[in-house]
Specification:
alpha+beta, 6 strands, globular, YjbR-like_sf, DNA binding, YjbR/MT2646/Rv2570-like, DNA-binding, MmcQ/YjbR family DNA-binding protein
């Protein structure tokens, strides 16, 4: 199933509800959720993008309905365009993991505040 606007809004709401999450709109309409200034989710067009662990990047970006995220693939982000291979629960887990990866890059004082 191609991701609907309602599904994207639901995933965006989930991400915004995570501890320390901050919402912003960048680049002419891309909805972004960050923690401590580090992005962990981007919703724009007909898909959503989030960071994945280096070891999972090739596997996840090759699944049906997913691909390396434009402009962010070198940072190991994937773009999800449908729920063909990833269920909504898998996507939520991916967003939560993306937040953890962004959190791990913050200074220790900020990490402790949002863990």
């Amino acid at each position: 199933m191609v991701l609907s606007a309602a599904f994207l809004d639901d995933m965006l709401g989930y991400a915004r509800g995570l501890p320390g999450a901050v919402f912003d709109v960048k680049w002419g309409g891309v909805r972004v959720v960050s923690i401590g200034g580090k992005m962990f989710l981007a919703c724009g067009g007909d898909g959503l993008s989030y960071k994945v662990a280096d070891d999972d990047f090739l596997t996840l970006s090759g699944l049906p309905g997913a691909r390396p995220a434009p402009y962010l693939a070198r940072a190991r982000w994937i773009q999800v365009l449908s729920t063909e291979a990833l269920s909504p629960d898998d996507i939520r887990a991916g967003i939560a993991r993306s937040r953890e990866l962004a959190l791990s890059k913050l200074p220790k004082s900020q990490r402790l505040a949002w863990q």
